[in-house]
Design brief:
disordered N terminus; two-stranded antiparallel sheet; mainly beta
Length: 208
């Protein structure tokens, strides 16, 4: 990623941390190009045919129930943030051609997984940012953080707890200092070209 790309992504992340939680009013997201490449064609083909296994990042306190909210996005972009879940979604201008109501559902349980409805294909990458506080992602694990797409309404898991996914995308880890005590905030941001279900994962994926 170029220095300019990193600067733009850093600006998007900084903006996301300043937003209010769960807002259905969607201020325009910062303009952004395709800063984070999606998985290669060969990766997607392999995932579609065989499925991929990867370890989900887990919340230290599992969600007892699904948590849902909605926001609107259109040709000018869109934005939503939920501080209690640590999630921010930033849709750049031009990613959508018309206005649509998007519903986000944080899925119950320990894995950090979300369902986005309706199914959408974007003209530009949409950026999902997850605050890693309160998750199993330690400093070393953060080096291997990725976004992973799961088919269907909820992810499927193996008996050993690995998630079965069909697409994996790279993530950028952001370490931000803030507050009077210089508290360190670590977030993971990854770009996606489509919705429905995405989870935060860590480690090297393997074919089934």
């Amino acid at each position: 990623m170029s220095n300019t790309g990193r600067a733009l992504l850093g600006l998007a992340v900084a903006t996301s941390l300043a937003a209010v939680a769960c807002s259905d009013v969607s201020p325009l997201a910062p303009a952004a190009d395709r800063l984070t490449p999606v998985a290669s064609e060969s990766q997607n083909l392999l995932g579609g045919l065989l499925g991929l296994l990867i370890a989900p990042v887990k919340r230290t306190t599992p969600l007892a129930n699904d948590v849902s909210w909605s926001f609107h996005a259109g040709s000018g972009g869109g934005y939503t943030s939920n501080s209690s879940l640590g999630l921010t979604v930033s849709i750049p201008p031009g990613a959508l051609s018309s206005t649509v109501k998007i519903t986000v559902t944080a899925l119950k349980g320990a894995p950090v997984a979300y369902r986005f409805e309706p199914h959408l294909e974007f003209s530009k990458d949409v950026y999902i940012t997850q605050n890693l506080k309160g998750t199993s992602a330690g400093l070393l694990m953060s080096l291997l953080i990725k976004g992973a797409h799961f088919p269907g309404d909820v992810p499927a898991y193996t008996s050993s707890g690995l998630a079965i996914v069909d697409e994996v995308v790279p993530a950028v880890i952001n370490n931000l200092l803030g507050g009077l005590l210089g508290t360190l905030t670590r977030t993971a941001t990854f770009g996606v070209g489509h919705f429905t279900g995405w989870l935060v994962a860590s480690g090297n994926e393997s074919a089934m």
